[in-house]
Amino acid sequence: MATKFLDITADSCPMTFVKAKLQLETLGDGQSLEILLKGEEPLENVPRSAIESGYRVDSIADNGDGSHTLVISK
Known about the structure:
The structure is a single chain. With 74 residues, the chain is α+β, with helices and mostly antiparallel strands. It has one domain (4-73): TusA-like domain (Translation Initiation Factor IF3). The protein is 31% helix and 34% strand. It contains 2 helices and 4 strands. The protein has helices spanning 15-24, 40-52; strands at residues 4-7, 32-38, 56-62, 67-73. It has a 4-stranded mixed beta sheet, covered by helices on one side. The mean pLDDT is 94.
């Protein structure tokens, strides 16, 4: 279970990763952030940018409604 939750379904790039990055920076070691996102661009860019920033993508799930749930941990 994720430590924190962020819904960025109403946002577009580059704000999707800006908001995710701000939340990721609040994580302590071993904590995780669950992100609800929508659209191809955030689905591609948020996980890639998180990995490039040193975080681990634990899972990506298709919610069946055009949104995805992404879990990233520190």
